[in-house]
Amino acid sequence: MLVECQKPSAPVVAKKKVYFRWVTTVMDQKIPYDDYQLPVVFLPSYESPPAWIAPQDRIHHPDYNNELTQFLPRTIILKKPPGAQLGFNIRGGKASQLGIFISKVVPDSDAHRAGLQEGDQVLSVNDVDFQDIEHSRAVEILKTAREILMRVRFFPYNYQRQKERTVH
């Protein structure tokens, strides 16, 4: 039986409880809310699942990506001459509780050629833990170092959360 709920009406007060009357469609016929026993639950519309693909066929299927090595921590080494730019921007810090992330990488920069990418979480720089560090302290460490040994991991989920928390 297909049930599709629509927007509620004005609230109805009964026995010190507030109820909403719903107009419900069942197989193309309208049934008033009062004809159902309480409680009536509003459910989102149904979304069909993707077609099933046999496990042996998944390795070559475009909807499946089993390449998990992209999420493993890796080491980036950058040498920065005095006065030169880093080639990337960072966002986040202790206040966000999510860490420091690479928010932009300049194309054709040393950082880009070394494999740094937007969405990388900076785990450490020159053996300084960056997972719980103030943003200003992270910038200071990165700008003053001549040789940067970074431990990073691609973490797009937390990077997206970081962007959502940041107000510009």
Automatic annotation (TrEMBL):
GO terms for biological process: pore complex assembly. It holds the Pfam family PDZ. Residues 75-145 form the PDZ domain. Gene3D superfamilies: 2.30.42.10. InterPro entries: MAM_complex_regulator, PDZ, PDZ_sf. CDD domains: PDZ_PDZD11-like. GO terms for cellular component: cytoplasm; pore complex. It is found in: Cytoplasm. Its main location: cytoplasm. Keywords: Cytoplasm. This is PDZ domain-containing protein 11.
